[in-house]
Write a structure and sequence with these properties.
The protein is of the alpha/beta class. The protein contains two helices and seven strands. This is VOC domain-containing protein.
């Protein structure tokens, strides 16, 4: 049972094919959201990121917050692979420097049994309001 190990959708990542598409996508979301500070804040505690994917694919990934640190992230990642039929895509890691929003942010991605990509994140850019 994973209840409590993953708390909320914290980041929505919009994948784009190249730098030109990235610029157009960011311009679109700035107009749509009326938000120019990047990463774009959604609601009160969720971020929207626009990134160029390594394989040029356009995909959207939702990153779910894992409370704790990188050790907790690794435990949940391993549990999803061993006990819930997921396949690892990118093991827990810090994002590249140019994407680093916070020094302690860590990410991981997996594919569920149907092949949908899901992400896990610790220390997302917008913590929940308490």
């Amino acid at each position: 049972m994973l209840k409590g190990k993953v708390t909320r959708p914290a980041i929505i990542e919009m994948g784009v094919a190249d730098a030109a598409q990235l610029a157009k996508t960011k311009t679109f979301y700035e107009a749509l959201l009326g938000e120019t500070k990047y990463p774009y804040r959604l609601l009160t505690d969720m971020a929207l990121l626009c990134v160029v994917t390594s394989d040029g694919s356009t995909q959207t990934t939702i990153y779910w917050e894992v409370p704790g640190d990188g050790t907790d992230l690794k435990k949940v990642y391993d549990d999803l692979i061993k006990n819930h039929g997921c396949e690892g895509v990118h093991p827990p890691h810090k994002p590249p420097k140019e994407m680093l929003l916070k020094g302690d942010l860590e990410l991981a991605t997996l594919a569920d049994a149907a092949g949908n990509v899901l992400g896990l994140v610790t220390n997302p850019p917008y913590p929940p309001l308490t």
